[in-house]
Every structure is written in structure tokens, then in C-alpha cells.
Amino acid sequence: MAGALSHIRVLDLSRILAGPWAGQLLADMGADVIKVERPGEGDDTRRWGPPWIKDEAGEPTDIASYFLCANRNKRSITVDITQPEGQALIHRLVKQSDVVLENYKVGGLKKYGLDYASLAAINPRLVYCSITGFGQTGPYAPRAGYDFLIQGLGGLMSVTGRPDGEPGAGPMKAGVALTDILTGLYASNAVLAALSWREQSGLGQHIDMALLDVQVACLANQALGYLATGENPQRLGNSHPSIVPYQDFPTADGYMILAIGNDGQFQRFCAEAGQAELAHDARFSTNALRVQHRQELVPLLRQLTVQRSTAEWIAALEAKAVPCGPINQLSEVFADPQVQARGMQLSMPHPTSGQVPQVACPIKMSATPVENRRAPPTVGQHTDEVLQELGLGAEGIAQLRSQGVV
To answer: What transmembrane ranges does the database entry give (predicted)?
Structure first.
């Protein structure tokens, strides 16, 4: 059965992570995503290794695992957009496309005739999504933006990391490029909304996505806490500003997470820990009181949690419907029976490396399920195929290749 977006063609001019992540999500849902790369080089992330994918003999290849994480289900063509002939090819593709994704600097594509105004004149139904660090307007618009920079500037690092005065104190970025990922998710949502509106209006539109905007929006409760009080939230390590106990605790053989969200759960935890009276202590009987008396309660709980192993705690607390869990390494994540049952790891045939691993799309749709049609492509793997679809013959393609256009 065709994917939900099998009627949509996306021209993906983006590279690195935010744009490709949006393109991969659309591709996973069935869209024909054509990734446009630089001849001979391709997306920068193709060279962002180690780690490198190993071939069937177990030897490292020149394929960076970074590239593989965001380019599944796409077709790759190489086009030199700085040459007029390359621009003409993009214009021809735009006539047959529904969406363009790009993450060039503000105004960077205008000189090539590939900006929104130029392409909308060719195809008024085009949905054109620009992803930049700071957006198309404002004093920072000309600046380049990178995830790490935005995590700092956008406030995430101010609330992430150990509190001052503790060992290892200081601001800390997330362990993945979270702002890029979130921007890709917002971008794909915006594209789908614009396509839906096009069904009513017959017209496309320009989408202006900025990493900084997304990072500020995703501060969520922390942002609203500041706006409500005027007070800057502080780093709390793995603790929660509004819920206690909601953090990591030591066990006899490691650590576990307690995520107690209401008073009933706290009462059941205390009973299981053999300290039922703690739940009725005047300092700890409600969540608001537990937050107020956090510094007194947490050391008491740590004295209890170290008395059993992580596995023993999890088995006991799950039986009492108290939210808890381990802190897994990735080897444990992909060995977890729930992760395996949900099919989150897969392998796909690759044209040069046998099989390559993938993390599956997490969307489960009953009528139009995600299909894993293509492994992340090699550079320009589908150039001839796509150009033939435009009506070019072998001789014309060979000439473009000899000129360095493709």
C-alpha cells in the first residue's frame, strides 16, 4: 500500500541535520524525496566520522554513520547549482515538485534564482521551507547558526547540568543535536500544514523556520516559569523543578530513575521501601511540600535506594505502579525487549556496503504504514534516474556530467 505522502515530491536542498531530518520524516511517510548534493562531495555529514559503517568483512568504509541517521528513503542526485545549467535543472524539477527544503544562509540562494520568489513564479503551488539559525528577519538573520550555539543562546544549557556547588557543576548541552532534531520535526509539521492549506487555496507558501525560535519554544514549562515569576530557573542536574522525587537515585549496583508524579505513587514507594511514615511526614505529604523540602527528603531516599539492586527495585516498584526505570547504555537500549518488540532497529541493503543499520521511524500508522524503501543513498546514486524522468537522454546527461554540472 502506498504511503500517506506517496503523492508528494520533495526537493531537498538541505544538508547536515535539521533539514535532512525533516526530509527523512516526509520520505518515511511515502514522499518521493530527491536529495540535491554537490557533485563529488555531497552532504558534509558524509565525512563526519568516525564512527564509520563497516562492510560485510567487518572493515571500516568511508560512510559516516552520521549521514545514515537522517537520509533514509531518499534519492540522491548531484547538481552544481552555481552553474546556469544546474539552476535550469532545479527549475525543471521544481515544476514537478510540491515541496522545497533548504537551509542556506538568508539570501544565499537568491543569486542562483533558487529563492522562494523565483521558484514560486515557476510553481505557485510550491511549499518552500527555509531552515536557518535565526530566521529570515531580525538583527541576527545574517548569522550562521549551529545547534550547540543555539542550545547556549536559546537558554537550554542554562537549565541543563549540575547545580553550582556540586562536583561537575556547569552548563551542559544535550547529548544529541536536539535543537536540530526539534527544528526538523517542526519543519515537517509546517510543511504538512502548508500542503493541507494548499488543498483549499491552490497556493503554496514560504515557511520560515529558525533554530533559535524552536529552541525558545521548546523551553516549555521552564520558559513559562520564568515569564510567570521573572525568576531565572537554575540548573538542577537530573532533578525536576516542580516534581519531587523525580530524578536519579543510587542503588546497590548502579542507578535508577524515580519519576513519581503524584502523592499516591509516593505513598506506595514509601510503603515498598519500608518507610510508610515518610509519606505522612508533614514536610513530605504533598508534592508542593516535597519540592519545598527537597534538600531534606532526597538524602533520606538515597539511604533507602542503595539497599537493593536496580533490577530488584524496578521489579518491586513496577508491581506497585510506581514509575521507575534503569539508565541504559545504547547496547542495553537496543537489547530491551520493548524496543525490540516495537521494531526500532532495522537493517537495510546498501549498494556498496552490504547491509547498513538504521533506527526505525517511530510513527506507526494503521492504514499507511511507514515503508523502508531505500537505504541512505550514495552520492548521486539516482542522478541518471531522476534526469531521465525529466526527459533527458543518455547523451544529454553525459554532456552535463562532462561539464561538471552533475
So the answer is: none
Query: Which has the closest alpha carbon to 65: 329, 358, 352?
Result: 358
Nearest to 32 by CA among 77, 82, 81: 77
Could you give the maximum distance between any two Cα atoms of the chain, in Å? 84
Per-residue pLDDT tens over the stretch 275-290: 999 999 999 999 999 9
DSSP character string of 274-308? T-GGGGGSTTTSSHHHHHHTHHHHHHHHHHHHTTS
Looking at residue 1, its pLDDT comes to: 64
Q: DSSP label at 45?
A: G
Q: What are phi and psi of 131, to 5 degrees?
A: -120, 120
As a whole number of angstroms, the distance between CA 85 and CA 78 comes to 13
Residue boundaries of the structural domains of the chain: 9-218+339-402, 246-332
Radius of gyration of the chain (CA): 25
pTM, two decimals, is 0.95
Q: What is the mean pLDDT of the chain?
A: 97
Q: Which residue has the cell 531518499?
A: 74
CA 203 distance to own-chain centroid: 29
Of 3.40.50.300, 3.30.1540.10, 3.90.660.20, 3.20.20.80, the CATH number of 246-332 is 3.30.1540.10
CATH for the stretch 9-218+339-402:
3.40.50.10540
Strands (DSSP E) found in 170-312 = 205-210, 246-250, 255-259
pLDDT score recorded for residue 2: 86
Active-site residue among 115, 180, 248, 253? 180
Q: Give the pLDDT band (50/70/90) at residue 56.
A: confident
8 Å CB contact between 78 and 393? no
Q: Which amino acid is at 247?
A: Q
Q: Is 64 helix (H, G, I), strand (E, B) or coil?
A: strand
Nearest to 270 by CA among 229, 341, 314, 320: 320
Q: How wide is the angle at C-alpha 162 spanned by C-alphas 158 and 165, nearest 5°?
A: 105
Q: What is the DSSP letter of 169?
A: B
Asked about 180 being catalytic, the answer comes back as yes
Q: In this predicted structure, what is the pLDDT of residue 59?
A: 85
pLDDT higher than 90, residue 57: no
Query: What pLDDT shows up at residue 25?
Result: 98
- Contacts made by residues 331-338, CB under 8 angstroms, sequence distance 24+: none
